[in-house]
Amino acid sequence: MQTNSIIEARHINKEFQSDKGNELKVLDDMSLTLNEGEVVALLGRSGAGKSTFLRILAGLVPATSGSVTYRGKELEGPNPGVALVFQSFALMPWLTVEANVELGLQARGVPRNERKKLALEALDSIGLDGFESAYPKELSGGMRQRVGIARALVLKPDALFMDEPFSALDVLTAENLRQEVLKVWSAESDAIKSILIVTHNIEEAVQMANRVVVLGSHPGHVIAEVPIKLDRPRDKQSEEFQSTVDYIYSILTGRSDETNARRILQSKVRDKEAVNKSVQEEDLGTKVLPDATPGGLAGLADIVAEHPGGIDMADLAATLSFEVDDLFPLIDAGLLLGIFDADNGHVRLTSLGKRWQQADILEAKEMFSSMILQRVPLVRVIDRALKNSESKTLHGSLILDLLRAHHSDKEAVQQFETAIGWGRYGELFDYDADDDRLTLDPENKASLPQQEQEL
Ligand SMILES: Nc1ncnc2c1ncn2[C@@H]1O[C@H](COP(=O)(O)OP(=O)(O)OP(=O)(O)O)[C@@H](O)[C@H]1O
């Protein structure tokens, strides 16, 4: 990537005169460099002065003090290297799509044939092939914004400036158009060299930008510049993407200063490392953890205990007024944990199962924690990850992500919930769904080898 600077703004201050004649300071000492090849997002709340700053860089509004240069030359009017795309598409309703796109070229005195050729190229590049002779009112919002973008692209600007370009569109159309704009930007053509996008949408900023400039308000000032190094195309669902969004969110909301926000991000990265380290050779993909609760298992063990020689599953189901199918998860869980034996549909308590069934509540919990640590890979992973984590807490979503790599969403959630239920009963760990926090139980000090020896 080249790093030649296209536009440089230095120490920009802007004051407006209010209706009552008072000075309203809108921008305070803002500096920014836009380099060739990059997409920069200006992110801030409504009224932070984003649009004003964009217009100053475009040479449409003068700064009260400070300087703006384009390719090293101080601006003396509209910036010749910039083309603008607005939220409200600002098309001429009486002109066809093609004529709307040609307007800027006409103003530059480009001859008619050349105008047509360039307009058709620009329309083609943004997916408007075949719509040249339509009028704006015949088009959907998304198509109109495509015309707005084509009208800017046709000028082959050094910098495409976009002021909330997707915020008037529905979610899917906006998403589609973001991808199209990135495609045009990354193409090996001379269409556009850089993009400056104004947005209040953090995901949009992280998805599009190489660098996010976060603005604070009253007056507008730069709080932080965050480089976004995620590979393209960017996966919104990925942990890295979401962590970056969280990080910028914490800066923007002023919940933390940049140092604190970085600490939060680092803790998430460390959480992930703790989880990855804990997976080791564990197999989370082959078997699905049966959907059974410790209470259900204990109840079943009580009933099976009444039949010292064992009981047929069909009889067991009849005794409980269960369908046999409903019994399977409980039996499977009992087999997995070594509580039951089953032979040809005949279920018995093992000696471990008998001890567990006769134990008092505290003893039963301790035995249960040993069983699940020894026999359930998912419980081992969570337990180890929590012990590996500095804070002894973890984002539950990290564990869910591990499961989603091998199972459907529904199976992943069910297994996560089952493991939480088992871990909670065994006093190994707990989970708070409100803030997606897994925490190590204060009682959970036992190390794995000792637990194994106990059984
Ligand atoms: N021509 C003007 N005269 C007086 N005040 C203005 C003028 N233009 C903007 N302002 C004020 O400057 C402040 C910043 O406005 P600006 O539109 O730049 O913010 P923004 O961050 O782009 O917000 P939004 O996302 O709502 O457009 C606001 O308080 C606005 O009222």
From TrEMBL:
Alphabetized PROSITE patterns for the sequence = ABC_TRANSPORTER_1, ABC_TRANSPORTER_2
Residues in a coiled coil are none
Q: Name one GO molecular function term.
A: ATP binding
> What's a Pfam family in this record?
AAA_assoc_C
Q: Which InterPro entries match?
A: AAA+_ATPase, AAA-associated_dom_C, ABC_transporter-like_ATP-bd, ABC_transporter-like_CS, ABC_transporter_ATP-bind, P-loop_NTPase
Ranges where the ABC transporter domain occurs = 7-242
Keyword Chloroplast present in the record's keywords: the answer is: no
* UniProt superkingdom: Bacteria
Keywords carried by this UniProt record: ATP-binding, Nucleotide-binding, Transport
Please report the name of this protein according to its UniProt entry: ABC transporter ATP-binding protein
What is the taxonomic lineage of the source species? Bacteria, Bacillati, Actinomycetota, Actinomycetes, Bifidobacteriales
